[in-house]
Write a structure and sequence with these properties.
The protein has 331 residues and is of the alpha+beta class. It is 53% helix and 16% strand. Helix 4 (146-179) runs antiparallel to helix 5, helix 4 (146-179) runs parallel beside helix 6 (227-291) and helix 5 (188-216) packs antiparallel against helix 6. The longest helix has 65 residues, at 227-291.
């Protein structure tokens, strides 16, 4: 039974959800944990790990194992989903949220749940959890147990991920229009930011999907009641968006290769022109070098038309170079 005399440190919000009454009562920030030993409701605590008292508060939380306690208070940045002793706990990947805007920065939401409570914790504000809270306040009857609330959290992350994928698709469309335009422009810097986000999302999404599949295949006696069905539904959701993220990653990679190919072709064209200029001017350089030697007996040295004759030799050597390159098939 939860103690009715414990205050809640680091509380962002707390709800006691009563499915029978269809209510979700929000606890006061400086309130106390309710006792619901005789009821059918469940408790949702959302905690801020910046408060150092959170760990001590969770030390003797009823029904919370040591492994679940560690999962809620860890600062590690990788996804994890574990089921054991009728508990599910770990870390979910999500997007961070600024005060007045949403971002694409990766955030981490730690969780632990049983059939009577769900506890979530984080360091930075998370996008999905605020939307789930709003949905819970609007329609408490929609969430009858902690498993459904957990499903809502992951489903909201999936919807947020789809939105990010659509935004990055539009960015890739704009980059693609520029890349395949007749005018050459280097879009590698803009493309690099998109690829960085896509690669990180794909890596964390694949990890979360694998962990969810493993959790769904765990022994029934280890998992909370109903968690296997929720995990299977979430796997289907994550698989659908996984294909979209993978396709986006492949498209960004192909665009990067196309940009590199066009830049390489342009560089090769410049080198080709430079090589031709060198070939044209090399005979002329030999001519000017010959007439510039500081020796006696040079032809046309004493004549009135020596300069014109030298220019004539230079022009003839350039024409001869062009003729040789044309005959060789280089031009």
């Amino acid at each position: 039974m939860l103690s009715p005399t414990r205050s809640i440190p680091g509380l962002v919000w707390a709800y006691y959800v009563d499915p029978a009454g269809g209510t979700a009562n929000r606890l006061e920030p400086d309130g106390e944990l309710p006792s619901f030993a005789d009821g059918n409701g469940f408790l949702w605590l959302h905690l801020n790990l910046v408060d150092t008292r959170v760990s001590a508060f969770l030390d003797d939380f009823p029904g919370l194992s040591a492994e679940a306690h560690t999962a809620l208070t860890t600062h590690e940045t990788h996804a994890a989903v574990t089921v054991d002793e009728q508990l599910a706990f770990g870390t979910l990947v999500d997007f961070q949220r600024e005060f007045d805007a949403e971002t694409r920065d990766i955030g981490w939401l730690h969780f632990a749940l049983s059939d009577r409570f769900i506890i979530t914790s984080r360091l930075q504000p998370i996008r999905s959890i605020d939307r789930v809270r709003t949905a819970l306040e609007k329609n408490p009857a929609k969430c009858t147990n902690p498993m459904q609330l957990f499903e809502m959290l992951v489903a909201e992350f999936q919807r947020g991920l789809i939105k990010v994928v659509m935004e990055m698709t539009e960015e890739l469309n704009a980059i693609e229009d520029i890349v395949y335009d007749s005018e050459l422009r280097d879009e590698r810097r803009q493309l690099a930011s998109v690829r960085r986000v896509v690669v990180r999302l794909y890596r964390h999404l694949r990890t979360l999907l694998s962990l969810m599949r493993r959790a769904a295949a765990s022994d029934e006696e280890d998992m909370p009641f109903g968690f296997d069905e929720v995990a299977r539904r979430l796997c289907a959701r994550l698989e659908s968006v996984d294909h979209d993220v993978h396709a986006l990653q492949e498209r960004a990679r192909l665009l990067h290769e196309e940009i590199d190919s066009k830049l390489s072709s342009e560089t090769n064209r410049h080198l080709y022109i430079l090589s031709l200029m060198t070939a044209f001017l090399l005979p002329a350089s030999l001519v000017t070098g010959f007439f510039g030697m500081n020796t006696t007996g040079l032809p046309f040295a004493d004549g009135l038309h020596g300069t014109l004759s030298a220019f004539g030799f230079i022009a003839f050597s350039v024409f001869l170079s062009w003729l040789v390159l044309r005959r060789a098939g280089i031009l």
